[in-house]
Amino acid sequence: MDKGTIGGIVLAGGAILLGLILEGGKIGQILQPTAALIVFGGTLGAVLVQFPLNVVLIAGAGLANVIFEPKSDALSVIKEIVKIAHQARKEGIVSLDRDLGKIENPFLKKSLMLAIDGTEPAELRKMMELELEKQAEYEEDVPKVFESAGGFSPTIGIIGAILGLIQVMQHLDNIDEVGRGIAVAFVATVYGVGLANLILLPCAGKLRIRIREAQIAREMMLEGVISILEGLNPRVIETKLNGFLSEIPEDSKEQEVVV
User: pLDDT: is 35 or 181 the higher one?
Assistant: First the structure.
């Protein structure tokens, strides 16, 4: 699991609840099912109006990328490509065909299939760069869903507060009931602002980072496959791919791939 995500949620939520308790409040005061229903239901409904259902479902599934670390990082991608390059150099690029089933990443598999089938490097680059562009456009919608939800939820929270105040106005003859009702009404605002700033907007930001990391990995795969097709030395390919990384641990540079 992503320790940063879990730790951030626990820290933010814990700090807010601790602050509430230190001010003499009680956690039960902010546990209002009606306010939660208005904010969560209203925000989801607004998002469904703005985005197609399939995009919203994909965004919901994308939460896994916020909570869990990616299965592979850039260094593991480089190691895999260098290993493939060693095999292609020793046995020929056609020998890679028997191991295609072991490759999990569909982009890398497709690139290698085109290379094995004899596609020219320039044509292969053109085809796969087009796929990269389309994939980037497709993935861009995912964080937009959370950003939009983060914009809607505070406003929905205000709507919930106003609805609560409308109910309060009907009991002006009982001052105790009015005070309690106002407090309850503003819980919806807390839910809306908290949902936006503690969950939705941070999730959108982390998803953008994850998406960019995946894009860089695919760019590395494409460059690696083309380099293999051009017959470059595996060490040269590794050095070339390391250029995609902003910072490379020294110990990882010294590791060699054994085939």
Answer: 35
State pLDDT tens for residues 122-159.
999 999 999 999 888 888 889 999 999 999 999 999 99
The single residue listed with the structure tokens 């002006």 is 172
Q: Which of 143, 148, 210, 191 is nearest to 5 (CA)?
A: 210
The pLDDT, as a whole number, for residue 255 is 44
Q: Distance between CA 102 and CA 109 in Å, rounded? A: 9
Tokens representing 5? 């995500």
Burial of 195 (0-12, 13-18, 19+ CB in 10 A): buried
- From residue 160, give the alpha-carbon distance in Å to each of 36, 90, 98, 198, 251: 9, 68, 61, 19, 55
Give the up-direction half-sphere exposure of residue 40: CA atoms within 13 A in the CB hemisphere: 7
On the question of pLDDT at 167 being above 50, the answer is: yes
